[in-house]
Write a structure and sequence with these properties.
Number of helices: 0
Largest sheet: 7 strands, mixed
Strand content: over 45%
Number of strands: 11
Helix content: under 10%
Radius of gyration: 14 Å
Structural class: mainly beta
Amino acid sequence: QVQLVESGGGLVQPGGSLRLSCAASGSIGDIVAMGWYRQAPGKPRELVATVTSGGRTNYADSVKGRFTISRDNAKNTVYLQMNVLKPEDTAVYYCNVIRVWGLGNTRDYWGQGTQVTVSS
């Protein structure tokens, strides 16, 4: 099992910045990827950014150049630095990790979600 604890959400004005953190514990040795998704009211959950255990990153087009995902393997923590925030970035942000173990067993885990609101 993997447990995830998120922090860092809040209210920020357009153009501002926030940093989200997600600390993983439990069977962390099997984690192959960590990432962030978000869900705005009335919309489906969407990928924001991911980073693999090898450091490869992937971003949604809507956040490229503004958001940066990073991973501290020593702390088992993934971060999302969000700059130049826009009202359309308002959503609940969820941490996600993918764990692979044994003979191809795969499972993903979700954090509890943290609210990000961009408004003047």
